[in-house]
Amino acid sequence: MEQVLTPAHRLPLLLLASLMGTGLFAAAFYGWMQYGSTMLLTLGEAGLSTCL
């Protein structure tokens, strides 16, 4: 038999998924703010060295 989730059971799952997505986005944004310039400079230098 298949069990269909009722709307009352879907809400906590949706809230948990939204919270996890928001946390992942916040962690990525924090990482970009801390290390974004270093990443861009490193990738730029690596890209320029392969062109020569």
Question: Which properties best describe this structure?
Answer:
52 residues; mainly alpha; 1 helix
Brief overview:
The chain has one helix at 7-51. With 52 residues, it is mainly α. The radius of gyration is 21 Å and the shape is elongated.
Q: Which series of helices and strands comes N to C?
A: H
Euclidean distance between termini CA atoms: 64 Å
- Number of helix segments? 1
Share of helical residues: over 70%
Q: What fraction strand?
A: under 5%
Average pLDDT figure? 85
Largest sheet: none
Query: How many strands?
Result: 0
Low-confidence segments, ≥5 residues, pLDDT <50? none
Overall shape: it is elongated
Secondary-structure-based class equals: mainly alpha
Radius of gyration over alpha carbons? 21 Å
What secondary-structure arrangement, pairings included, does this model have?
Elements lengths: L6 H45 L1
Description:
With 52 residues, the protein is an all-alpha fold. The model has no long low-confidence stretch (mean pLDDT 85).
